[in-house]
């Protein structure tokens, strides 16, 4: 699969990420992005609400697919199995392009407002996961802890995946973090 | 132990929290807080840098004490034992007054900027915890996961403590969350 979605949307995303890396997010204007992508600002706004949305527009799809995976998991699944199913769906949605994830991560880590935005998105995702677990009949306290624990596993796995020098799959990184969590809690 | 520290600092904190609850954080001015506490705005600024600091000034003490507990834990402690020692120190620092924690939490949850600030403080605390684990010789990946897992346990325990109808100690809530985490990971 190619890195950028075809057409103007993909060109705009590529142009935006490159400009954010070259000049910084605050110094890049929508007009600069449109110009680099060879389209008008009007076209930019057909794809993205603002320049921040280029970085965060995957969140809705990620949430939708992960909740669908959680809902579709077998009736025998434990709370942590359900969380793992949700995280695997996240990996299937964003895991195909590590270079894109790296560029995005570099842009976000360089800007305090974007780091805040990312923390908020993660907190919202965690709350949605806990709600999904409750809908699957998991008790309130267990759902809350399983969702927060899944969020912890995901944060760690994501950083490892983005930082890994060699080949690493996001799904594999998530599995490794879950295995390490079991070792941690068993050793204690 | 009384709820408010003695003197003008305690009166200012009490006045501020009550006003934030009555009028909202954004609608409360430093002059209002000083007036309610019976002091001048100049006195307010001897205790707090701004009206937000009334809510977040415990963070430095919490971080310092929890890192000291982590550093002072026995050499045989596992990564999760070290995290538990750090969280117990957090409980000892803020756990003596649930009503104060509830008021603060209500104010924060009602305001998007304050919720963001709280998420940032938690993320900084998690990063400091991971660094503390590394200084105790815990490997990089394990330190990262143990710190994030501890943060998950803490978030859940804190919410349970604040929301509990009956008696509940913050330290007890943390112990319960750790026990539940072990059950969750063992069941999987």
From TrEMBL, chains A, B:
GO molecular function: DNA-binding transcription factor activity; transcription cis-regulatory region binding
A Pfam family: TetR_N
Domain (HTH tetR-type): residue spans on this chain: 6-66
PANTHER family noted in UniProt: HTH-TYPE TRANSCRIPTIONAL REGULATOR RUTR (PTHR30055), MYCOFACTOCIN BIOSYNTHESIS TRANSCRIPTIONAL REGULATOR MFTR-RELATED (PTHR30055:SF238)
Name assigned to this protein: TetR family transcriptional regulator
The organism of origin for this protein: Amycolatopsis vastitatis
InterPro entries named among the record's database cross-references: Homeodomain-like_sf, HTH-type_TetR-like_transc_reg, HTH_TetR, MftR_C
Top-level taxonomic group: Bacteria
Gene3D superfamilies with a match to the protein in the record: Tetracycline Repressor, domain 2 (1.10.357.10)
DNA-binding region: 29-48
Keyword DNA-binding: yes
Stored PROSITE patterns: HTH_TETR_2
Keywords: DNA-binding, Transcription, Transcription regulation
Keyword DNA-binding found: yes
